[in-house]
Write a structure and sequence with these properties.
With 1001 residues, the chain is mostly beta strands. Helices cover 6% and strands 57% of the residues. Among the domains are: 74 residues, Sandwich (Immunoglobulin-like); 68 residues, Sandwich (Immunoglobulin-like), CATH 2.60.40.10; 320 residues, Methylamine Dehydrogenase, Chain H; 81 residues, Immunoglobulin-like; 72 residues, Immunoglobulin-like (Sandwich); 74 residues, Immunoglobulin-like.
Length: 1001
């Protein structure tokens, strides 16, 4: 028996050679559908391949197709597709069924608000279509198919809504974040100067609270929670510090303007003339003077170079005016919210230039409190350059104020009835307009952060904000800002005024007759500058000069050698308290004219560089904007009956931009009137609606005077024409509407859409039929249409369409809403190769649409929504990608098989077919190159196939190469009366279709 089997087995090779190409080969074909189950309205792709075929066709009206190919189908019901191929060897068929399921349900799901505090409430809201059951996770359970629900999670929770219907299941999620861990951080960033010359440097200073991390952009990187650092911007630059903790983040920004040659002015008050002298520091000449209130005491230029603030200690008036002013009356307004008797004296300004603090120089008796008080005014300028003001009380005498360079803290030198002196520290942000505790009448002490037990007459900070210098009757006291402790004393007499050099190396301290120059490295006096009657001083922004008011003169001192180089005669009793020298903001000027004359009080807006500002023209039609260099759009406000030429202007500003003029001219009005309906029965009503442009008055015949735009109801007894006349500065315009009166039937309409719910990007068909109508129109940009018809629409969001029809009997309308939902995410996922030789890698490739995130299992994790990744599995591995988008979630899987195991399965499949004696199935495991030959062989020995398969041993891999592999199988043979294990070799190849088959064995 063994000998007979050996002969048969060996004879296979002989038969293979003998019958390799004798007969015509019968065609083969297979067909598949992906996916095989679809929801109504979706599509499936048919894919087929054939061999030995010359033609192919598919039923269900598809017809002739290529012998290999694909086709997308969208059956309305479950359908079986049959492909028939024909070749020289005959015909073959294959079939596949596409099952059509009901439409997938849809769902919208949201949580509002998305972030709550501990103990807070968020509202979950949802709506669905084609749904039978709806559940929400996180313990909520089953809910109605549409609805809302309040939730109060104790920790951050992801709620997932799952919607099921006849067509399947979809889900969406909504995250509710719970802040459990404390308070948000805060941070304030300031700069020693907001305007600098090209090539100069600036010191940034910042203070934060409750921050775990802090970083500054523009290459600075991670920093401590408070500190200071020099920067050297080469162009106008915005620096932003960002801080964070476990609760959230906060940020603060400051913009440094870099100019090639910025203008620098000094604004010196003169109490004798009630004016402020304006001095150009480049020429040391008085340009003009500005009238302010009585006894001006101090002036400060805001850091952004836009405004000057003057405290008038004899009138209760705070004068605030733009730096572009060099003469005339200042724009002044009564300070301290009409709190009578207050004399403003001390000024402090936040780095942003919009928040101004003004303290009274006298105490007032408050009968309500029963004690003497001082007043702190706060002024804030909004984006329209309009001031807001408010005030606070404090039962102490105020001697001086200073803002920390970061802008985070306001320091106030005070003393009280039972208090010999304290420097009070406030959170500057809490003192801004709108942040007052008990605004208007509150006690300032309620917002006190801390106090430093020192009596001081003046305060100044080092540029980095680390040192506070306090002037007093004994000299100077130096305080560590962070610890609020005294670290040194400089005993030089009764000091009343302080200034710190911009680089922090020198202190300028004055008494009544001297200015002492002190080196901060040693805290020793290095020079003394004698004066006759010292009344304040201020440093040039670049530190090169010190400007000191000495009686009626301004003495300009070279800081490199501490000598007076120029003396300017001011006249009268002048004073130089405050920071009265500074760079000026750039300026845009222009004029609006009407018929050649200046148009006064015309409104104009400026937008650009994050600024939105507004101004009015003066009596001569002139306007002025003080803003940083940059590009802006100027837009005059529309005036009925007039038009501007040009309509707007683009201005590129570098220091000064003049001549930005507009011409105002009249324009003719327009008029339009309609009646709805246009036909009414006797005794019926219609609504007249009219509109006009550039009209200041209007009338309608049979009605009289009306507003230029409006509506009214009328009931004419007979057919009537209503004429609308609009009149404006540019003339008149007319329009008419006729209302017919009779017994005509009103038009009827049937209006629908199919489908009424679509995914974004899909289309729906509007269909309508009417009766008794002569015209029809549809809104949303469609316009006039036939009285009966249809129209395809593709709305990008849920939209209600209204059709209006008109006939002899009047007008009618109807509406239909098309709901637009987000499309479901889709993903395609492939592996190449899908069958992997030992030790090699496969590339997983995917692409998706309508997605925002993607993850792959088996340790890969989060990936882009489209991309690829290499994998090297050691065993058969199924990879699943999950994508999420606004429309829900989708998944796809691909399996990477080990080649050795796969080829074993191919061999086992062939053996199984042999055991069944199924020759046609056996040869399907062979490559096309040898398939026909083995068919002839196996037909010849078909009766022996089951026994041959039963006697086969296991196969073993020998080697693998690109597109091929060799295995071996041993068989017990009897030769010359002896038994031997004989090795036979099996060869596998990968076909052009990527399928591995047996080549020969």
């Amino acid at each position: 028996m063994q000998t007979k089997k050996s002969v048969i087995f060996a004879g296979l090779i002989i038969l293979f050679l003998a019958f390799s190409s004798i007969y015509a080969v019968k065609p083969t074909v297979n067909i598949s559908a992906s996916p095989e189950r679809i929801n109504l309205g979706k599509s499936s792709t048919l894919s087929w391949n054939s061999t030995n075929a010359t033609s192919a066709s598919i039923n269900n009206d598809i017809g002739t197709v290529p012998v290999n190919g694909t086709k997308s189908v969208s059956p309305a019901a479950t359908t079986t597709y049959i492909i028939t191929v024909t070749g020289s060897g005959g015909k073959a068929t294959a079939r596949v069924k596409v099952t059509v399921l009901p439409p997938l349900p849809t769902v919208t799901f949201s949580a509002s608000p998305g972030t709550i505090a501990q103990g807070g409430t968020s509202t979950l809201s949802w709506s669905t279509t084609s749904a039978s059951t709806v559940t929400i996770s996180a313990g909520v359970g089953t809910v109605p198919v549409n609805g809302s629900l309040n939730v109060s999670p104790t920790q951050t929770t992801l709620y997932v809504i799952t919607v099921s219907g006849p067509g399947g299941t979809v889900s969406k999620s909504a995250l509710v974040t719970v802040n459990n861990y404390g308070v948000l951080p805060t941070v304030s960033l300031g700069a020693s100067q907001l305007i600098v010359k090209a090539g100069d440097w600036v010191t940034l200073t910042w203070i934060s609270s409750n921050a775990e991390t802090a970083a500054i952009n523009n290459g600075i990187g991670t920093v401590q929670g408070r500190g200071g650092q020099k920067v050297y911007p080469s162009q106008t630059t915005t620096y932003t510090i960002s801080v964070s903790n476990s609760v959230g983040t906060a940020s603060s920004s400051v913009t440094i303007q870099v100019k090639s040659n910025p203008r620098c002015y000094a604004y010196v008050p003169n109490a004798g003339s009630n004016k402020v002298n304006v001095i150009d520091t480049a020429t040391n000449t008085v340009l003009g003077n500005i009238t302010v209130g009585n006894y001006p005491y101090s002036s400060t230029i805001c850091a952004d170079g836009r405004r000057v603030v003057t405290a008038n200690s004899g009138s209760g008036i705070v004068s605030i005016y733009e730096t572009d002013s060099i003469s005339g009356d200042a724009w002044a307004f009564s300070g301290i919210c009409d709190y009578l008797g207050v004399n403003p004296k001390y000024i402090a300004v936040l780095p942003n230039g919009n928040d101004i603090f003004m303290a009274s120089g006298n105490q007032l008796w408050d009968s309500g409190l029963g004690r003497y008080i001082s007043i702190l005014d706060v002024y804030f300028f909004n984006s329209s350059n309009s001031p807001l003001s408010s005030w606070r009380k404090i039962d102490r005498i105020i001697f001086s104020m200073a803002v920390h360079p970061s802008g985070a803290r306001l320091y106030m030198a005070t003393s009280g009835t039972s208090d010999p002196g304290n420097i009070l520290v406030f959170d500057a942000k809490k003192l801004e307009i709108g942040n007052f505790n008990n605004q208007l009448t509150g006690d300032l002490s309620a917002d006190l952060i801390s106090s430093i037990p020192l009596l001081a007459s003046d305060l100044a900070f080092s540029p980095d904000g680390k040192r506070l210098y306090a002037a007093n009757s004994n000299g100077l006291t130096i305080v560590d800002v962070e610890t609020e402790t005294v670290i040194d004393e400089i005993p030089i007499g009764n000091i009343t005024n302080l200034k710190i050099h911009r680089d922090g190396t020198l202190i300028y301290a004055s008494d009544a007759q001297n200015i002492y120059v002190i080196e901060t490295a040693t805290n020793l006096v290095s020079a003394t500058i004698p004066l006759s009657y010292a009344k304040g001083m201020s440093l040039h922004p670049d530190g090169s000069k010190l400007y000191a008011v000495d009686g009626s003169q301004l003495k300009i001192i070279d800081t490199s050698n501490n000598t007076v180089t120029v003396t300017v005669d001011l006249g009268g009793s002048s004073s130089g308290y405050g920071n009265f020298v500074g760079y000026l903001s750039s300026v845009i000027r222009g004029r609006i004219t009407l018929e050649g004359n200046g148009a006064e009080y015309k409104h104009i807006s400026l937008v650009g560089n994050g600024i939105n500002s507004e101004e009015n023209t003066d009596v001569n039609g002139n306007y002025t904007f003080l803003v940083p260099d940059g590009t802006y759009t100027l837009q005059p406000e529309k005036i009925t009956g007039y038009a501007y030429s040009p309509e707007n202007l683009q201005v590129s500003l570098n220091e000064i931009a003049n001549g930005n003029d507009f011409t105002l001219a009249t324009v003719p009005p327009t008029a339009e009137i309609t009646a709805n309906p246009v036909h009414i029965p006797v005794g019926g009503y219609t609504v007249l609606e009219w509109t006009s442009t550039d009209a200041t008055s209007a009338n309608i015949t049979n009605i009289g005077s009306v507003s230029p735009t409006g509506s009214c109801s009328v009931s004419p007894a007979t057919t009537t024409t209503y004429t609308f006349t609009a009149t404006g500065p540019g003339g008149t315009a007319t329009a008419a509407a006729t209302v017919s009166v009779g017994d005509e039937l009103p038009p009827g309409i049937v209006f629908g859409a199919s489908p009424t719910t679509i995914e974004r990007g899909q289309s729906a068909i509007l269909t309508w039929t009417t009766t008794n109508a002569v015209s029809a129109s549809i809104d949303n940009g469609i316009g006039n249409v036939l009285v009966n018809g249809s129209q395809a629409v593709t709305p990008q969001q849920s939209t209600t369409y209204i059709i209006t029809v008109i006939g002899p009997g009047g007008s009618s309308n109807a509406q239909v809403t098309i709901t637009v939902t987000e499309p479901l995410p889709q993903v395609q996922f492939n592996a190449n190769p899908a069958i992997l030789p030992p030790g090699q890698s496969a590339i997983l490739t995917w692409s998706s649409v309508n997605t925002t995130s993607a993850t792959i299992d088996n340790g890969i994790g989060t990936v882009p929504t489209s991309g690829s990744v290499n994998v090297t599995p050691t065993q058969d591995t199924t990879y699943t990608i999950t994508v999420i988008g606004p429309g829900g979630t989708a998944m796809a899987s691909v399996t990477v098989k080990m080649l050795a195991g796969h080829l074993q399965s191919v061999w086992d499949g062939m053996k199984t077919a042999m055991l069944a004696g199924d020759v046609s199935q056996v040869v399907n495991y062979f490559d096309e190159e040898t398939k026909s030959n083995y068919l002839e062989i196996f037909d010849t020995i078909s009766a022996q196939l089951p026994q041959l398969a039963a006697d086969m041993r296991e196969i073993e891999p020998v080697y693998f190469e690109d597109g091929g592999a060799q295995f071996r199988i041993k068989r017990l043979e009897i030769l010359v009366g002896n038994e031997y294990d004989v090795t036979y070799y099996i060869y596998f190849v990968r076909g052009e279709d990527g399928v591995w088959r047996i080549l020969k064995y």
